[in-house]
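Open question from group meeting: does this chain pack into something compact, or does most of it stay loose? Before anyone orders reagents, we agreed to write out a predicted structure and look at it together. Recording both the input and the output here so the notebook holds the full record.
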Amino acid sequence: MQIRMCLGTVALILASAVSVTPASSQNTRDALADGVMSICADPYIYPSSSQGYPPGYDIEILEAIARTGGYRSDRFWVNSGTIGGLGRALRNSIAGGYCDVFIGVAVDDRQIDELAEKDLVFTLPYMALAFVPVVQGPAADAKSFEDLKGIKIGVSRTTPMDGYLLMHGFDREIYMRNDLVMEGMVRGEVDAAMLWSPSLGLAHRDFADAEFHPILNYKPDPLFTWNVAMIVPRTDTKLKTLVDNGISQLLDNGEIQAIVEKYGVPYFAPVDKPDPMKYRTPE
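C-alpha cells returned:
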C-alpha cells in the first residue's frame, strides 16, 4: 500500500456496487432520512477498506458509528488509485450525492479550500498514520529510531521519510514501494525499515510467518504523522454531528483503537501538527 492516502492523493469513481440516487434530487440537508448511511470507500486499499472480507478498519469504524445512531450502512465503491486526485473523486462521489461519508482522508490544510468549493467539511480526526521502524535479525533489539544508526534501513523512495533519512545520515536501501520494502525484509536484504503504518496490515496478512516487527512502544515524530478524518457535506449538520459524536465516543471507549489493531496496524491517536520550519536541517 502506498502513502497516497496521507498526502492528499488518498480518487476516481470506478464503479458502484449499489444503485443510488444523487442527493441533488433528495434533501441534501438530511442524508440519513432514509435510515441508511452510505459510505464512500476504495475497494483496493486494504487494510483501510476492501471489497472482500474483512472490509477494512475505516469501513468498520464508520459502520460502528452508524450503529451508535441506530442507522444501517451501505457502500459506494471509489477507486482512489487513478488519475484525477482527491478533488475529482469528491466531485464524482460525495459532492455528487452518491454517498454520505467519504472515509479515510488525511487532514491537510491545503485541502480546506478545495472542500469549501465543494461544500464539504472534515469531521473530527479519529486516528493518525505514520512511518514506523520495523526490525528483525541483528536489529531486532533496537529500542528506538536512533538505535538504527549504522544499520541499513529499507525505505520507499521519494517519501518524506526517505528525505529525512538522507538528510540525517542514515544508511538507506531504496525500494520503489512499501510492499517491496517488506519483501526485501523477508528476503533478508535489510534488517530494518521505515514502513507506512497501514503497510503493517498487509504484512500481517501476506507475510504472517515473517520475523520482522515494529519497535515496541515507538512514538512517531509528529512531523511524519498525518491525522485521518472523514468528509461530509457542510450543510448536513445532523450527519456531521452524528459522525463527530460517534468518533468521540469510540475514541473514549477504545473501540477505534481495537478495530485498527485487529488488522495488525499500530494505532496512533490524532496529533497536534508542529510547525515544519523548526525541523529544517541547519545550513
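Observations to bring back to the group:
The chain is about 25% helix and 20% strand.
Helices lie at 57-68, 85-91, 112-117, 160-167, 178-186, 199-206, 237-252, 255-262.
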